[in-house]
Structures are given as structure tokens and as C-alpha cells.
Amino acid sequence: MVDSVAKIWMNGQMVDWEDAKVHVLTHTLHYGLGIFEGIRYYDTPDGPAIFRLTEHLKRLYDSCHICRIEVPYAWDTLWNAHLDVVRVNGLSDGYIRPVVYLKDGPMGLLVKEDHPVGVFIASWAWGAYLGEEGLKKGISAKISSFCRNHVNAMMSKAKVNGAYVNSILAKREAIQAGYDETILLDTEGYVSEGSGENLFVVSGGRIKTTPLTSVLAGITRDTVMTLAEELGHEIVETRFTRDELYIAEEAFFTGTAAEVTPIRMVDDRTIGEGKPGPITKAIQDVYFKVVKGQDPRHRDWLTVV
User: Fold this and answer.
1) Mean of the per-residue pLDDT values for the chain?
2) Neighbours of 77 (CB within 10 A)
3) Taking the CA atoms of the chain, what radius of gyration do you get in angstroms?
4) CB atoms near residue 136 (< 10 Å)
5) Distance between CA atoms of 218 and 229, rounded to whole angstroms?
6) Is 281 a catalytic residue?
7) What is the pLDDT of residues 271-300, one digit of tens each?
């Protein structure tokens, strides 16, 4: 369960947690057309700081543009609303979930240009998405029987609510089989990503990750690529197969929720030595220092509340 906080920003005003409601005929609830983001803020020496808010907001607006949804609020309004949500709820470390949704109005699959649009921004305390133990020792994953959506079946560069049904089915399958997370292949059989994470492998001393074809352009993905290059590692964006993943020296997930989580096993095959490898641990270490304001680099990624 999500622990409740005091307020949620909803359509221009702060409302009590228990009063943040939508109508049962809300269009997004029925058909899945809506846009969301996941953003973290961390306790830093300067106070709570939202990580890469600019990039998350840009992706929110870009996703809406792709799906022809007109955001009813200006950039500055939503920017300040994110800060206000953190302030009013008094958490030093937490997660923010902005959602742009189609309100109740005409039903059916034809969404007209004048369909009413709403926005809410919620925040709550959320620890390690794949578990503290997973961050330290690595997790197990299963290649899913479900494929990641084809680029012309779903807009892969938009963070669309309904697209995540694909992830839910794949993750449920993996959990019920006794694994911690799932890995989806693309429609041509190459490794795509996790249910809500981008994926990296270390092979021959190089770091490889799936190119931005069938995968969402992860903001943590971009962060990790920047930090890894600063550590002197070569990053290659290339397609690779599931058996290449099996014989990788290291593997790890990245995502706002998952942060940097090592993968120790895939389909009952041990990855490397079956524990977080040196490159993964080095990237994980610098990542947490940066997001928590303990590293002088990339202070522009932090928006202090």
C-alpha cells in the first residue's frame, strides 16, 4: 500500500489525499489514453532536491504532443506545482507521479480535440523499487513470453498509461514463476528492456545497451550513460540477443524507480559471478552520490525545493 500524505495537486489546487478523486466515466480509466511520469527527489545537504525535473517535464509534454493531448497548464505552473507538492507534504525523500488524463466526457474511441483534460501530481515515500536487498546483491529476472510493443503498435517514445498493460502482464508472469523482474524482447527477438527499466550489460569490458528503437528514452538511462563515460567506460548502443545476455560479465537495470539495480541471474543462468560486478558497483556508487548531492558534478540535475 502507498502511505498517504497530506495533499495532492489536482487541476490547479491542493486537495486532501482522500478527496483526490476522478469520476468513474473518466475516459483514461476506460481506454488508457493518458500520460504519466515518475520522478524522484532525494534528501541532500541543501534539503529535498528533485532529480532532473526539467527532463521529466519535457518528456511529459513531448508524450502529450505525440498523443495529441493538449496540456491545460503552462510549463511554469506544473514546474512550481511539483515543488509545492514536495513542500506541502514535508517528505525529505520520495517519489512524484504527475498524470495528464482525459476527464469524463464523450465515451468511445474517438477523442475530439476539445475533450476536457485534467492533471494531478501526487507524491509519496517510496524506497528501493526492487528491494534494498536487490540493490546490494542483485536480482533474478525471467525472459518474458510477452514481446515489447512494436514501434507502430504503440508510441514507444511516449510514456502512455495504457502501454503499461504489456509490462504488467510480463511482470506478473515473472513474479509467479519465482523471479524478481522480467525482461522483454522486441518483436524481432532482441533484448528490449525490463517492465519499467532500461537494461545494460557489460561484455568484453564494454557497456552495451539497447538503442532507442523499441525502448523508452529513460532519463536514468541517459544519466548512467553520462556517468559511465565520465568513469572512463565505453558505451555502445546496439542490439543484442538473449544468449548474449546470458554470457555477459555483468548486467543491471536502470530507471527512476529501480535506480541502478544489478542483475545476478536470468532464466536460471548466473550472470558473471552471480553478484554485482565492479563496473555496476562503481556506476551505482557514483549515481547515488550525484542524486543525493554528495558529488560536485551535475548539480544542475538537482532542483532544490
Assistant:
1) 96
2) 13
3) 19
4) 14
5) 17
6) no
7) 999 999 999 999 999 999 999 999 998 999
Check: CB of residue 248 under 8 Å from CB of residue 203.
yes
N-term to C-term CA, the chain: 26
Catalytic residue among 7, 142, 159, 208: 159
Q: How far apart are the C-alpha atoms of 159 and 62, rounded to whole Å?
A: 9
Q: What sign does the dihedral 224-207-188-253 (CA atoms) show?
A: negative
Beta carbons of 140 and 19 less than 8 angstroms apart? no
Contact 258, 129 (CB under 8 A): yes
Identify residue 63 by its one-letter amino acid code. S
What is the SS3 assignment for 15-77? EEHHHCCCCCCEHHHHHCCEEECCEEEEEECCEEEEECHHHHHHHHHHHHHHCCCCCCCCHHH
CA–CA separation, 115 vs 90, rounded Å? Answer: 35
Percentages helix, strand, coil for the chain, rounded to the nearest 5?
Answer: 30, 30, 40
* Closest by CA position to 36, among listed 4, 1, 71: 71
The x, y and z cell numbers of residue 284, run together, are 551505482
Q: What is the pLDDT of residue 2?
A: 87
How far apart, in whole angstroms, are the C-alpha atoms of residue 233 and residue 210? 16
Helices vs strands, H then E, count in the chain: 8, 17
Task: Please tell me the pTM assigned to this model.
Answer: 0.95
The residue behind cell 549515481 is: 287
Residue 232 CB neighbours (<10 A): 7
Give the Cα separation of 269 and 4 in Å (integer).
40
